[in-house]
Write a structure and sequence with these properties.
The complex is a heterodimer. In chain A, 29% of the residues lie in helices and 27% in strands. By secondary structure, chain A is of the alpha/beta class. The longest helix of chain A has 16 residues. Classes of the chains: A alpha/beta, B alpha/beta. Flavin-adenine dinucleotide sits at the interface of chains A and B.
Chain lengths: 324, 259
């Protein structure tokens, strides 16, 4: 079986859930090889969880240039690995960096590319891969065959249920020493400030997201209260973000994050098409809105027509009571 | 400073969007417009050009109707337009689109900055800008929420969910901008009148030296096998809060094992 290259997403060595999903999917296509870009002190922490989800090999990329420059050096690394390993496919997270690496790698290696897939399976006779995408705000499902070159696919978080590989994966490590050409070092990250951690799960990987919109009137208290009762991430509509009530990083929708959690709660959000584009593939959808005619109710599994300032706190208290 | 802004003509998101029999996006049956997300790079280009006495060229690849997208950008204040229009282009994927746009940018020539939007509002892959940088061999500086140019260096702010980064690159470069970077201007009456006299060139693939076999549906590096309309979600129970709405919500969540 051939190797399947998987880009690892991690925060200081803590491997993100989306990477476990990629490794789970990669096992269907071949032998997963994790490509880990990390400072040496973070690499060890990551290795164990990579093995748990089925990585048989870890390519460790320690060259600081890769971390200090935008996208291009990572394309060099993958192009080198694709050539060297004759990989069957490349799987990347569907986030800005992942999609851009995918696009450039496809152009460079003459390969077919699919971004934002929600599923990936081997095609018949091992000739490439078959992907599923959900497009136009989740209203269409598109199935594609990618069999040109080394198929490159980015996979949306929360699309593939994570499974541990079972058994002890013997993780072979290999330091990758790719010489990065000067021209790939042209876009340099000159300053980086980490965002303050909220203690809540990350928006795109959370199992539950509770979002607030213009209906909060700027007070996200009830939204956060319900989110914390459910152990959820907090999201926001663009109206709430534009008003400066919540940071842009939490925006859900076409120009914000695209989320696909088990449960999505929309509070004080009308359900504009651009908002739907980022949440319509959620498994269960709940809305709380004063206006019974709000379009968000067309999508819901359960809805409450009412004031979020009374409904959300009451729900949160009831949940706390049930949790005991 | 010479700036090219890539703008796309897209089907209106408010109208029902769908597919043709050959699985390409239906661009006939629906009204189109300049992608809202491409108004941001136009605005940013205009501001930069105003500060540096530069020129702004808007570039689009698309069917005849796509001339509307150029027109709108010219009304906003861009100086000239280039429309790559060729029957062979229909159904092109991002790989082919980036090829055509890169050749067109080369033909415009002597460019300091290529600006693009965050994503197409129809395809929404956000990969064309990175592919353009790859093809043009220039720095890729994407997802800019702030942008400045000083002495031949572009500097942007790029935000992700974990960090905020400042990125610098020498010009020429490809820069994509987000929808938080500015507030696009509305065309003024004067702008609308002036746009009528602004030059727009229409180029074919032959003008760019691109072979028809490299673009279009048949050249796509991936094959769409099926497109299915998802059954609309079935509306579940909606209750009206008469004092117990929160409890009803908690009850529902518990019944689905979220509590
Ligand atoms: C190119 C483009 C991209 C866009 N991208 C995005 C995007 O990524 N994400 C996004 O969200 N939007 C996006 N939008 C904007 C989108 O079109 C809507 O304007 C936006 O989603 C509206 O946000 P909202 O639902 O919070 O506000 P509104 O539409 O104003 O809805 C507020 C709702 O709150 C309800 N309400 C008011 N008070 C209460 C109360 N006390 N209790 C309960 N309910 C109450 C009201 O009944 C109403 O339904 C985009 C638009 C464009 C043009
Ligand atoms: N056909 C096109 N003509 C001109 N510019 C385009 C075209 N397609 C994409 N672009 C540019 O690339 C950006 C990102 O598009 P995409 O990668 O398709 O999401 C858009 O915002 C445009 O600036």
């Amino acid at each position: 079986m051939s190797e399947v290259l998987v880009l690892v997403d991690h925060v200081e060595g803590a491997v993100r859930k989306s990477t476990a999903e990629l490794l789970t999917a990669a096992r269907r296509l071949g032998e997963p090889s994790a490509v880990l870009v990390a400072a040496p002190e973070h690499a060890d922490a990551a290795r164990e969880s990579l093995g748990r989800y089925g990585a048989e090999k870890v390519y460790r990329v320690e060259a600081p240039e890769v971390r200090e420059h935008l996208v291009a050096p990572l394309v060099d690394v993958f192009a080198n690995l694709v050539e060297r390993t004759g990989a069957a496919a490349v799987l990347l997270p569907s986030d800005p960096d992942g999609n851009e690496v995918a696009g450039r790698l496809a152009v460079r290696t003459g390969s077919g590319v699919i971004t934002d897939a929600v599923d990936v399976q081997p095609a018949e006779d091992g000739a490439g891969v078959r992907t599923v995408q959900s497009v136009f705000a989740g209203s269409y499902t598109v199935t594609s065959l990618v069999n040109r070159g080394t198929p490159v696919v980015t996979l949306k978080p929360n699309s593939v249920p994570v499974e541990e590989a079972g058994g002890e994966a013997a993780v072979v490590e290999e330091a990758v020493d790719v010489s990065i050409p000067e021209e790939s070092l042209a876009a340099r990250i000159v300053q980086r400030s980490e965002k303050q951690q909220t203690g809540r799960p990350g928006l795109t990987e959370a199992a539950i997201v509770v979002s607030g919109g213009r209906g909060t009137g700027g007070d996200f208290g009830p939204v956060e209260q319900l989110a914390d009762a459910l152990g959820a991430a907090v999201g926001a509509s663009r109206a709430a973000v534009d008003a400066g009530w919540y940071p842009h990083a939490y925006q859900v929708g076409q120009t914000g994050a695209s989320v696909s959690p088990q449960l999505y709660v929309a509070a004080g959000i009308s359900g504009a098409i651009q908002h739907r584009a980022g949440m319509q593939t959620s498994k269960t959808i709940v809305a709380v809105n004063k206006d019974a005619e709000a379009p968000i109710f067309e999508l819901v599994d359960f809805g409450v027509v009412g004031d979020l300032f009374t409904v959300l706190p009451q729900a949160a208290e009831e949940i706390q009571r049930r949790k005991g | 400073m010479n700036i090219v802004v890539c703008v796309k003509y897209v089907p209106d998101a408010q109208a029902g969007r769908g597919f043709e029999a050959d699985h390409t996006t239906d661009r006939q049956g629906v009204d189109g417009l300049l992608s809202e997300l491409d108004e941001y790079p136009v605005e940013e280009a205009l501001k930069l050009a105003e500060a540096t006495e530069g020129t702004v060229t808007v570039l689009t690849m698309g069917p005849e109707d796509a001339a509307d997208a150029i027109k709108r950008a010219l009304q906003m204040g861009a100086d000239q337009g280039v429309h790559v229009c060729d029957d062979a282009i229909a159904g092109s994927d991002a790989v082919a689109t980036s090829l055509v746009l890169a050749e067109a940018i080369r033909k415009v020539g002597d460019i300091d900055l290529v600006l693009t939007g965050l994503a197409s509002t129809d395809g929404s892959m956000s990969v064309v800008p990175a592919m353009l940088a790859e093809r043009l061999g220039v720095p890729q500086v994407t997802f800019a929420s702030e942008l400045s140019v000083e002495e031949g260096t572009v500097r942007i702010r790029r935000d992700s969910d974990v960090a905020s980064e400042t990125i610098e690159a020498r010009l020429p470069a490809v820069v994509s901008v987000t929808d938080v970077i500015n507030e696009p201007r509305y065309p003024s009456f004067k702008g609308i009148m002036a746009a009528k006299k602004k030059p727009v060139e229409t180029w074919t693939l032959a003008d760019l030296g691109v072979d028809a076999s490299q673009v279009g549906l048949d050249a796509a590096w991936t094959t769409v096998e099926s497109v299915e309309a998802r059954p609309p979600r079935e509306q579940g129970e909606v209750v009206t809060d008469e004092g117990q709405g929160g409890q009803a919500l908690a009850e529902f969540l518990a019944s689905r094992k979220f509590v």
